[in-house]
Amino acid sequence: MRTLQHGVKGPMLGNREATERNKAVRHARLSTMTCVLVAALCQFQFAVAQTNGATVLTLDEALQLAKSNNRDLKEFGLDVIKQREAVAEAKTHLYPRIDTSVLAAQLLAPIDFTINKGQFGTFPGTGPIPGSNTDLHTPARPIAIAITVRATGNGGARNINRVQRRCSRSRGQRTEK
Q1: Are strands 97-105 and 144-152 parallel, antiparallel or unpaired?
Q2: What is the DSSP code (8-state) at residue 54?
Q3: Which of 54, 77, 93 is the last residue of a domain?
Q4: Do 146 and 139 contact (CB within 8 A), yes or no?
Q5: Is omega for the bond preceding 139 within 30 degrees of 0, making it cis?
Q6: Bigger pLDDT: 140 vs 127
Q7: Are 26 and 73 in the same domain?
Q8: What are the E-state strand segments in 49-171?
Q9: How confident is the model at residue 153, as a pLDDT?
């Protein structure tokens, strides 16, 4: 047995075999060192690229940037706005409501005509209808006026509770009555 490099004992190798083995070991070490060196240089370039000319973000700035660009947060914000609008709409039913309507009718052109005596017929028991010549004239004031006033109370309190329960269920919570 012959002592090889690093104090390892191995079989007796010929000069040529030992040289080839040493070359293989040196080649493996050289390849490993080359890979480590290239990786270190690549890491250094990335580290330098992040600090050259750029401002460093604080934690608050990074959080604000993340919140402003998060699509899910924007979507949830719109859902919250929509639910608040539904609650506000339901609250309007809590207030009293008064409905009024006014309708007036008047002829655009006057109607004037005469109904002659007996024009509708002459009957033995009553005589001619009408009994004399009748002149009809439309009045100068409106013919019909209808005014409607309707007041309703706050019967919509049930609606607001129903909307609040629906909103809380969509968030996965329950409200107590």
Answers
A1: antiparallel
A2: P
A3: 54
A4: no
A5: no
A6: 127
A7: no
A8: 97-105, 112-115, 121-123, 127-129, 134-137, 144-152
A9: 67
